[in-house]
Amino acid sequence: MAALAEGLAQAQFANRIDRNTARSELVERQISEAANLKSMIQQLANGVGDRVRGGDLSTQPLIANAAIAQVSRGTASGKGTYSLEVTRLAAAQTLSSPAFAAASTPTGSGSLTIRFGTISGSSFSEDVDHAPSTITIPSGATLADVAAAINAANAGVSAYVASGTGGAHLMLKGSEGAANGFVIEASETPGEEGLAALAWSPAAAPERLLAGAGDAAFKLDGLAMGSKSNTIADVAPGLSLTLTGTNPGQPTTIRFSDPTAAVSSFMQDLTAALNELVAELNKDVDPQSGDLARDAGARSLRKALSQLAGAVIMPGATTGDPATLADLGLATNRDGTFRLDGARLSATLKAAPSGVAAMFTTGIRGVYATLDKLSRSVTAPNDPGSLTGSVTRYTTLKRKLASEASELAEAQEALRAQMVARFAGVDSRVGASRSTLSFLKNQIDAWNAPRN
After folding, report:
1. How far apart are alpha carbons 31 and 48 in whole angstroms?
2. DSSP characters for 39-71?
3. Whole-angstrom distance, CA of residue 300 vs CA of residue 32
C-alpha cells in the first residue's frame, strides 16, 4: 500500500512537474543565449573602441626629431608636412625663500597674498584678470605648514620644502607662461612676526628668483608663433604639440602617417566579427529551433544589424567624403550576413583619405560611436525590448518556475503522506484477514488430515 501511495502521488503530479522542468530548461537556455548575444555586441563595440584609440586607423602626425616635441592628432584630420623650429620653451617662475634652520622652524603667523602678472627686470605688472590668492597662516605654523597651506589653496602656485647647502628653503613654483609670474606680500600677526621673510618682489630680492616665467616661442612653416604653455592644441589642422626641446636654426619635419593598410585590415576584421555575431543570432532566432525566436531583444538586435551598413554615421560629411559603413565596403547579404566590398573600400580610401580618417575617432560620430550606440541601445538596462530586458524577464521567470517546482514537490509529498495514512488502515485490515485466513486454513487442513 505504501508503494501504491508513492506511485499514485507521482502519477498525480507527473505531467505538471514535467512541464515545469521543460520550461525551466528552456528558460535557462534563453538566459544563456540572450546573455551571450549581449556579451558579443558589447565586446565588439569595446574592441572597436580600443582599436580606434590605438590611432593607427587615422592619420597620425610623426616628427623627425622627437627631442623637440611630442606630436599628436588634433581635432581635425591632417595631411601634408610641416616644419617646426623651437627657439624657447615656456617656463614657470621658480622662487626660493631665505634659508631656515629646518622644515620645522616656526615662520610666524598672519597671511600671504600671491599676486600674478608679468615680471620684467625689477618691475612687476599685475594681471588684473587673474585674481590674487590670500593664504592664512595659523599661529605656530612651521615652514612645512606654510608649504601645505599654499598647496591646499590651489592658487596656481605649488610649494615644497627643500634642504639646500645653507638650510631649509620654501620653494615656490607657478604655472608656465610669462603672465603667470608672481609676487608675495605678507601680513603679520602682531606678536608673532616673521612671516615677512617669505614676502618677495623682484626689486627687493632678485637673487631669490631662480627661474623666470616665460612664453614658448617657435616657428611653424616659418611663421613665428608663441604660447604661454608648452602644450599647444590644434596648432594646425590635425596637429597638436607638446614642446620638449629647442632647435634654433635647425627646423625639423612633421608628416602624417598613411592608415590605408590598417583601415583595410580593420574592415576585414570587423566584417568577420559581425558575421560571428549574425551566425549566433540566426541560430537563436531560427523559427523552428531557436530558443529566442520570439524574443524582443534578439529581434531588436537583428533589425539594428540589418540597417548597420547603410546608416549615415557622418551626417556632416562633405560631398565626396564617406558617410556610411557601406562607403567603407561593408555590404549586407540577403541572409543578414556581411561581406566586404574591397573595390568600394579601395576607391573610398583613394578618393577621400581624410574623410576615412575622420570616421575613426572617439568622438560622437564615426565607426566607434555607431557601434557603441548600437551596443548601448540593444543592451539598455531599462528597456524591456533590449537583450538586458530579455535576461531580466527570463531571470524573473526562472525564479517563478523554481518556486512553482518547490510548491509541486511539497504538494506531491503531502498527497503521498495523505495516501499512506489512508492506506495504513487497509494494510491493518488486510493483515488481520490474512491472519484469520491462515488460521482457518490450518483448521481445515487439520480436519481433513487422515486419522491414524
Report:
1. 26
2. HHHHHHHHHHHHHHHHSTTS--EEES-TTTEEE
3. 17
Confidence of residue 234 (pLDDT cuts 50, 70, 90): very high
Task: Tell me how far apart the alpha carbons of residues 129 and 226 are, in angstroms, rounded to a whole number.
Answer: 20
Nearest to 115 by CA among 204, 54, 186: 186
Residues in the chain: 452
Q: How many alpha carbons lie under 13 Å from residue 77 in its C-beta half-sphere?
A: 22
Phi and psi for 222 in degrees, rounded to 5? 85, -10
Rounded distance between C-alpha atoms, residue 404 and residue 123, angstroms: 87
Asked if pLDDT for residue 406 goes beyond 80, the answer is yes
Residue 408 corresponds to which cell in the numbers above? 509541486
Q: Largest Cα–Cα distance in the chain?
A: 155
C-alpha 315/C-alpha 323 separation (Å) is 7
User: Angle CA(64)–CA(65)–CA(66) in degrees, nearest 5?
Assistant: 105
According to the model, what pLDDT value does residue 200 have? Answer: 97
Distance, in Å, from the CA atom of 106 to the CA atom of 134, rounded to the nearest integer, reads 20
User: Which residue type is seen at 181?
Assistant: G
pLDDT tens digits for 246-269? 999 999 999 988 888 999 999 999
pLDDT at 452 over 60: no
Q: Do 29 and 291 meet the contact criterion of CB atoms below 8 Å apart?
A: yes
Task: Please tell me the distance from the alpha carbon of residue 305 to that of residue 374, in angstroms, as a whole number.
Answer: 9
DSSP-based three-state secondary structure for 123? strand
Residue 306: what are its φ and ψ, rounded to 5°?
A: -65, -25
DSSP per-residue letters across 300-339: HHHHHHHTTTTSBS-TTPPTTS--BSGGGTEEE-TTS-EE
Q: For residues 173 and 161, give the distance between their C-alpha atoms in angstroms, rounded to a whole number.
A: 12
Q: How far apart are CA 226 and CA 368, in angstroms?
A: 35
- DSSP, residue by residue, 149-177: HHHHHTSS-EEEEEEETTEEEEEEEEEES
Q: What is the DSSP string of 239-282?
A: EEEEE----TT--EEEEE---HHHHHHHHHHHHHHHHHHHHHHH
Distance CA 385, CA 377 (A): 10
What's the rounded Cα separation, in Å, for the pair 261 and 323? 20
Q: Which residue matches cell numbers 481433513?
A: 448
CA distance 452 to 25: 76
Amino acid at site 258: D
Range 207-232 average pLDDT:
96
